[in-house]
Amino acid sequence: MREWTVRAARPADLAGLRSLLTDTCEPQDIPSPALLAEAVAGDLVRVAVSDGVLAGCVVGETPSPGHARLTVVAVRAEARRQGVAARLLAEMLRRFLGATDEPPLMSAIARTEQLTLTRLLLASGFIGTRVMRLSGLPVHYQYKSRVEYIDPEARHLVPVSAREQLAESLAPSDHAVTALVTLGGEPAFEIARFEKDDPAALQSGEAAAGIAFSGSILAAITFLLGFAFSSTRFPDDVRLLLIGATFATVLSLIVYASASGELARIRSNSFGRIMKWGNVLSEYGGVLPFVISLPVTYAQASGDPWTTMVLAVVLSAAIGWYERSEFSIAHRFHRSRTELALKVFTAASPAIGAALVAADTTSWPWSIALIAALTARTWLYLFRRGAEADIAERRQWRIRVRA
Fold first, then answer.
1. Do residue 353 and residue 288 come from a single domain?
2. What is the pLDDT of residue 197?
3. pTM of the model
4. Is residue 143 part of a domain?
5. Inter-residue contact 244 to 206 (CB < 8 Å)
6. 10 Å Cβ neighbour count for 147?
7. Residue 267 neighbours by CB under 8 Å, 6+ apart
């Protein structure tokens, strides 16, 4: 079996591309020379090459900034059944998924008689969403970038040859082709019904959860702040830390309320951006300062340095675990050395602060450094971070059957 290299097409490949498409595709499927040259110039063509031989290609186009279409997938006969087409398609999907922070809708067209192409699309994460009223009855396939659920009791099979039935089955917007199977020795489409989510209801629930969480954190911080002002031995710098946490948590509540207002006015396009502000302010302005100040509060209440340090070390370990887990905001973004150093300092802060307070030494430098670290992390996540880490893996679509 030959080894094939998949790469972006170059202008020098144009002659070979035209020859490949002429030898492997129907005339109506071949892009014009001008469109092919434009696709190569726009980095929208991937080719499979071995020893200088061009054996396969996938050509795409972007009719609009939010839509990418796979125009043609072609592989020579001698290179088939070797995974060449799947590699080409995967590389093209990777190019579209990584092009912008919000990947475009990706679609393709396959006629009912193009069973090989249909299997390839379905195996790569596409589903057939509707029938196009064109010659050959092509099916429109769309790449699904998120997990959706199908009703296990709302699936049926339609023979490929039953074109009218296929068109009728795909008429509802929540029905789609999800598999190509064999029925009585003949190919057949499996049609499944998807359970549709209500975005407004989901966003409303998310905003309500944010408001409830920030409200609970605000109550806890206010309690600690009251204890801090009632104790004459409580460090002033930690009081200021709690005051800042109170202010940031109140801001997060205002932000969450603003997100709810966006929903009420049916302007949910800004919902994700607003919720990002609320989540970051709540975590780095409220939750972490509250948790980090707990050993200091315990030290003032108990006067026992040993149990204080045990509590502080446990909290530091818990924060370190949380920072590395998939639940933290930091996990969603690309990592850098600066961010790693800030994470380590944040996790170590309970132990450092508790040790300074237990030893009855000046804790101002620690408090200033902690405030600076949390402020820097807030700024990083709000203004300096773009796409989330591993977004291609998380957005890979798979059908889940709800029991």
1. yes
2. 61
3. 0.55
4. yes
5. no
6. 12
7. none
**Helix or strand (DSSP H, E) at 73:** strand 67-75
Please name which of 84, 54, 59 lies closest in space to residue 70, comparing C-alpha atoms: 59
Tell me which of 119, 149, 179 is where a domain ends: 149
* Same domain as 315, residue 249: yes
Q: Is residue 320 part of a domain?
A: yes
Look at residue 25 and tell me if it is in a domain: yes
**Tokens 């300092």 sit on residue:** 345
| CA distance to 165, 208, 288, 294, 385, per residue, from 245 (Å) | 62, 21, 9, 13, 23
In a domain, 161, yes or no: no
The alpha carbon of residue 244 and the mean position of all alpha carbons in its chain are separated, in whole angstroms, by 32
- The per-residue pLDDT for range 228-261, each reduced to its tens digit, is 888 777 788 888 888 999 999 999 888 888 777 6
Determine the Cα angle at 371 with ends 365 and 375, to 5°: 145
C-alpha span between 19 and 15 (Å, rounded): 6
- Report residue 351 as tokens: 């132990």
Residue 69 sits in a domain whose CATH number is: 3.40.630.30
Task: Look up the domain containing 307 and give its range.
Answer: 199-386
C-alpha–C-alpha distance, residues 219 and 138, integer Å: 60
Burial environment of residue 119 by CB neighbours within 10 A (0 to 12, 13 to 18, 19 or more):
middle
Amino acid at 60: G
Residue with tokens 């446990």: 314
CA 344 to chain CA centroid, Å, is 25
The size of the chain, in residues, is: 403
CB atoms under 10 Å from CB of 194, counted, come to 20
Q: Please tell me whether residues 137 and 267 are part of one structural domain.
A: no
